[in-house]
Amino acid sequence: MTERFDCHHCNESLFGKKYILREESPYCVVCFETLFANTCEECGKPIGCDCKPITTGGVTYREQPWHKECFVCTACRKQLSGQRFTARDDFAYCLNCFCDLYAKKCAGCTNPISGLGGTKYISFEERQWHNDCFNCKKCSLSLVGRGFLTERDDILCPDCGKDI
């Protein structure tokens, strides 16, 4: 008489099949994943399962598990695993999308001011400039750390602005 080797949960025979031991009890892969595996916040499927063959592991973001392939930028859908990213209103964004959508724009060059890597910027009356863009409109002298004057939307060094 042959002793049966069955899944602890569904009682299906595990003879010749993959199984996982948990607390010394055998489970078929489906039951184990259903009962015990972390499920991806995005797709709802177990992390590390056969349902996503290219998955080699998971990512934890805001204490929630995700497949690497499911953890993507809210805007462009590019994978964020292993990339620098940021969040707004609990949504994750790659840095390019975040800057395009939410970062302040430089009044000089109109490119986003990301503030990444300790990048400094100048702020004056609801306008911002990259340090490298904060220059006199007429002579291009850097105004960082110097006095300046304004003429409409332009910023001027004291010499160029003395006639306004």
Descriptive tags:
164 residues; alpha+beta; Cysteine Rich Protein; two-stranded antiparallel sheet; 23% strand
Helix content: 10-25%
Annotated CATH architecture of the domain at 104-161: Ribbon
SS summary, helix count: 3
Overall 3D form = rod-shaped
Mean pLDDT: 85
Radius of gyration, taken over Cα atoms and rounded to an integer in Å: 28 Å
Class from helix and strand fractions: alpha+beta
In CATH terms, the superfamily of the domain at 104-161 is: Cysteine Rich Protein
Largest sheet: 2 strands, antiparallel
CATH class of the domain at 104-161: Mainly Beta
How are the strands of the biggest sheet laid out side by side?
A: 1-2
Question: Can you put this structure into words, describing what you see?
Answer:
This protein has helices at residues 29-35, 95-102, 158-161; strands at residues 19-22, 25-28, 58-61, 64-67, 85-88, 91-94, 121-124, 127-130, 149-151, 154-156. A two-stranded antiparallel ribbon has the order 1-2. A two-stranded antiparallel ribbon has the order 3-4. With 164 residues, it is of the alpha+beta class.
